[in-house]
Amino acid sequence: MTKPDGPVVGRVRDWYDEEGWGVIESPSTPGGCWTHFSAVEADGFRSLRPGASVELRWEAVEQDGYEYRATWIREA
């Protein structure tokens, strides 16, 4: 998959507040994009809601069984 120059749009598939990670679906990251709370652009407690639309930047690396990892996320 070719990495785009800017953010892409995705949707939060799963989010685990107690563990601080989740998975985002987008056409640019087939199979899901692993994400950590530290990549979420937000003040205070960083969390995402399942089903929420987000913008993200990602990198192609193996992370916990996913081929992509988010490097930056914000709710759209």
Walk me through what this model shows.
The protein is mostly beta strands and 76 residues long. The protein has one domain: Nucleic acid-binding proteins (OB fold (Dihydrolipoamide Acetyltransferase, E2P)), CATH 2.40.50. It is 0% helix and 51% strand. It has no helices and five strands. The chain has a five-stranded mixed barrel with strand order 1-2-3-5-4. The termini are far apart. InterPro entries: NA-bd_OB-fold. It comes from Kribbella caucasensis. This is CspA family cold shock protein.
Distance between the termini: 23 Å
Query: Briefly, what CATH class?
Result: Mainly Beta
List segments where confidence is low: pLDDT < 50 over at least 5 consecutive residues.
none
Query: Helix amount, in percent?
Result: under 10%
**What summary fits the major beta sheet?**
5 strands, mixed, barrel
What's the tally of helices?
Answer: 0
Q: Give the CATH architecture.
A: Beta Barrel
Outline type:
globular
What is the residue-averaged pLDDT? 94
Strand order of the largest sheet: 1-2-3-5-4
